[in-house]
């Protein structure tokens, strides 16, 4: 069956350290992979998109990797801050039907 | 507008009643999506509009759910004869074309509670 797996347990990281979140998928072949941030009571906010032929993408303190062999994406936040605390969602775009499929997200807590 | 606007922000309705949820996308965005998010669950795709093409309704959970998009702009999601399992946050998003350049822009959602 098709699955998108993100760590369901909350991730606690000390301020200043690098937070790494994982997105694994099964029986999908995404052409693109997106990461979103969601705060309580708000809709998700788009952060980064990476294409299947890209290994890595950076934006300020954010870095995303995409390994189509392992069927995995890693999302890194360097020099983490308490304001980075939120739920982070990965989303797969198979390209064939122009809609994206979301994982359930991982809650991240940056501890001051 | 500056962002995607959804109304109402909260809706409590009695089981069996019909509800209408409204989404006002970003001006110029051709694509509009409806998702719903239940407590502790991921976002579940419902329906997708792209320009003047026929909508992709493949995610609608039952024939009690329908949506329309008038004039390529505002969209309304209608749920008839609401059930308790319809309780969720209904999120609307819009994007330029397919959203592959700049992702989707989401509204803050409508929290629907069926009692």
Structure description:
The complex is a heterodimer of chains A (112) and B (115). Chain A is mainly β and 112 residues long. Chain A has one domain (3-111): Sandwich (Immunoglobulin-like), CATH 2.60.40.10. Chain A contains no helices and eleven strands. In chain A, the strands form two sheets. In chain A, strands 2, 4, 5, 9, 10 and 11 form a six-stranded mixed sheet that branches. A five-stranded antiparallel sheet of chain A has the order 1-3-8-7-6, with no helix packed on it. In chain A, a hairpin with a 6-residue loop joins strand 9 and strand 10. In chain B, the strands form two sheets. In chain B, strands 2, 4, 5, 8, 9 and 10 form a six-stranded mixed sheet that branches. A four-stranded antiparallel sheet of chain B has the order 1-3-7-6, with no helix packed on it. The mean pLDDT of chain B is 93. Chain B has strands spanning 5-7, 10-13, 19-24, 31-37, 43-50, 65-69, 75-79, 88-95, 105-106, 110-114. Chain B has one domain: Immunoglobulins (Immunoglobulin-like, Sandwich). The A-B interface holds A 4, 32, 34, 36, 41-47, 49, 89, 93, 97-105 and B 4, 31, 33, 35, 40-43, 45, 48, 50, 56, 59, 91, 93, 98-109.
Topology:
The complex is a heterodimer of chains A (112) and B (115).
Chain A: E1 3-6, E2 11-14, E3 19-26, E4 32-38, E5 45-51, E6 56-59, E7 62-67, E8 72-77, E9 86-93, E10 100-102, E11 106-111
Parallel strand pairs in A: 2-11
Antiparallel strand pairs in A: 1-3, 3-8, 4-5, 4-9, 6-7, 7-8, 9-10, 9-11
Chain B: E1 5-7, E2 10-13, E3 19-24, E4 31-37, E5 43-50, E6 65-69, E7 75-79, E8 88-95, E9 105-106, E10 110-114
Parallel strand pairs in B: 2-10
Antiparallel strand pairs in B: 1-3, 3-7, 4-5, 4-8, 6-7, 8-9, 8-10
């Amino acid at each position: 069956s098709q699955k998108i797996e993100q760590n369901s347990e909350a991730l606690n990281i000390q301020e200043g350290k690098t937070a790494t979140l994982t997105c694994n998928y099964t029986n999908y072949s995404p052409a693109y992979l997106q990461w979103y941030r969601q705060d309580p009571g708000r809709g998700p906010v788009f952060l980064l998109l990476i294409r299947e032929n890209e290994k890595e993408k950076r934006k300020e303190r954010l870095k995303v990797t995409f390994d189509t062999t392992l069927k995995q994406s890693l999302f890194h936040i360097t020099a983490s801050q308490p304001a980075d605390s939120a739920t982070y969602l990965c989303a797969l775009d198979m390209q064939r039907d122009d809609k994206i499929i979301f994982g359930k997200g991982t809650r991240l807590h940056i501890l001051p | 507008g500056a962002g995607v606007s959804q109304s109402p922000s909260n809706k409590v309705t009695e089981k069996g009643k019909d509800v209408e949820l409204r989404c006002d996308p970003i001006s110029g965005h051709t694509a509009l999506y409806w998702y719903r998010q239940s407590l502790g669950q991921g976002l579940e795709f419902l329906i997708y509009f792209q320009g003047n093409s026929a909508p992709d309704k493949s995610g609608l959970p039952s024939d009690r759910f329908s949506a329309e998009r008038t004039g390529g702009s505002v969209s309304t999601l209608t749920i008839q004869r609401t059930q308790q399992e319809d309780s969720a946050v209904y999120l609307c998003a819009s994007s330029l074309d397919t959203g592959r350049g700049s992702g989707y822009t989401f509204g803050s959602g409508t929290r629907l509670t069926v009692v």
